[in-house]
Structures are given as structure tokens and as C-alpha cells.
Amino acid sequence: MPALNMTDITNLEISITFMNVFYSLLVSGACAFFVKFFYIHYGRSLSNREQFSNVFLLLAVTTTIVITVVKFSLALSLGLVGALSIVRFRAAIKEPEELVYLFLVIAVGLSAGANQYLVAFVLTGFVGVVVVLQHKFSRRKKETVDTNVLQLTVPGDSYKSAFEQFFSKMSEHCAYCKLKTFSRVGNVVSMGFVFELLEGEVTVMEFLSEMETLAGEGVTIKLSTNVAIAE
Predict the structure, then answer these.
(1) Triad 48, 141, 46: Cα angle to 5°
(2) How confident is the model over 29-40, as pLDDT tens digits?
(3) 116 Cβ partners below 8 Å, 6+ apart?
(4) d(CA 121, CA 40)
(5) pLDDT digits (tens, 9 = 90+) for 102-146
(6) Which helix (H) or strand (E) holds 155?
(7) What domains, with CATH codes, occur in the chain?
């Protein structure tokens, strides 16, 4: 079989239509939005899920564009192998759940870019159903975590004093307290503490009330607890 020359490769290229790109971006964007919804409401990551999930839409759309352009050009697909070999990503993925959702968004982008719209919708819907059922099943089984999570968002210029105040107050009521996550975006610092209250000292709501009294201007508090409530 004779080898392909550059003229043959050029003849294999197909022009990209506007509607094709539009439908692909629309599908990938919609699916990424639903993945973000599932991650924020049902994820168990200790990091700031809302902030981390903001990248889902951009990642899905970018993947879709790359696949859309490459699939119509054999020359570009061959060149992409060499181009991506020099790209190195150094983003720190703190928890496995974050990596799973990133792979899910990339898979959605690949499906939409390849015009496999049904696959993208089925994949998103199936994962959504699994996540919701898993969440309800774990609650029904009364599976609990031995620690609670307190998330603080503070201005970047006062995060040190805020850390000392909150950590000191938490130590008074906690048998266990540890700074688990720390991230800074611009002038906003997010800190995540895992803790376990001393038995019989204060309730979760009383503890939250005391934390709110320490919150100054620009400080937001989110408390996540998995304490089972008897039926």
C-alpha cells in the first residue's frame, strides 16, 4: 500500500461548520453545568467545591474545541501528539474525588467534540443518578464521619490573625482539630478545618454560634457535619 503524501493528507481534511461547533459547545457546556451541580451538592471534598468547580465549564469547552478541530484534520491530529508532549500541568490535586470529576468533565468534552451528543448526555445522567443514590444510601445507612468540617473564607491581608482566633476557640471545644486545606486566590484565603467536638461540651449548633461571633467583616463560615439523626 503506497504511503500518504501531503496532498493526500490535505484532501482528507473536512471544513468545520458553524452549527457543528455551536451544538458541540452547547452540549459540553450544559453537561459541565450539571456535573458542577452534582459536585457542589453531593461531593465530599474538603476543599472549596464551588471555587474548584468553576473550572469545569472552561475545561469541557476547551476539550471540545480541541477535539472538534483535530478530528477534521489528519495533519493537525498528528501534530497534536508532538505539541502535547511538551505541555506539563503542575496543578495540585488534593483529593481523589477532584481528579475523578476532572476526568468526567474531560470525557464529556471528548464526547461532545466527537459529535457523540447522546453519549455525553447519557454519561452525565448516569453519573448524576449514581452520585445521588450513593448520597441517599449512605444517609439511610447512617454512615458517619468521625470529623466535621469548618470552612472559612477570609480576606488575604488578615488570614493569619483569623487563623489564630478561630483555631484557639476551636481548641477549647474540640478533642481533635487540624487545618486540612489552605488555598489563596487573589486577596481571598480559604481554610478548611477538620474537627471533633468534645463529648458533652457543646452541640454542633452552639459551636457554630460561637464561631459566628468571631467572624468579622469579609469572613464567611460554612459548617459541614455528617452526624446521624435518629429516626
Answers:
(1) 10
(2) 999 999 999 888
(3) none
(4) 19
(5) 899 989 988 998 889 999 999 999 999 998 888 777 655 444 444
(6) strand 148-155
(7) 6-140 (no CATH), 148-224 (3.30.70.1440)
8 A C-beta contact, residue 80 and residue 183: no
The Cα 221–Cα 125 span in angstroms is 32
Stated pTM of the model: 0.60
**Burial grade of 161 (CB within 10 A; 0-12, 13-18, 19 or more):** exposed
C-alpha cell at 84: 502535547
Q: Tell me the residue length of the chain.
A: 231
CA distance 173 to 125: 42
Task: Using alpha carbons, select from 169, 166, 168 the residue that is nearest to residue 219.
Answer: 166
Amino acid at the residue 69: V
Alpha helix ranges (H) inside the chain: 6-11, 18-42, 49-53, 55-71, 74-84, 96-113, 117-140, 159-173, 204-214
Q: Are 177 and 171 in contact (CB under 8 A)?
A: yes
d(CA 50, CA 47): 9
